[in-house]
Specification:
mainly alpha
């Protein structure tokens, strides 16, 4: 993957726009987003289970 940036930022060339669109639409970005979302779901699920286990243990003491 070859990316070149022009020094003139006021008038971006079409080549830069195409490479930017290519980077945004690249499946790797979507895969990373799905992995991050799945990891957050898993983390929330584990924390919820630990919280429920902690509540049941406190109820057993009383």
């Amino acid at each position: 993957m070859h990316i070149t940036y022009q020094s003139d930022e006021l008038e971006p060339s079409m080549n830069n726009k195409q490479t930017f669109l290519f980077l945004v639409g690249f499946p790797v970005i979507k895969i990373l987003v799905f992995i991050a979302f799945g990891f957050l779901l898993l983390l929330g699920f584990v924390l919820l289970k630990q919280l429920q286990a902690g509540i049941t243990e406190k109820n057993k003491d009383h």
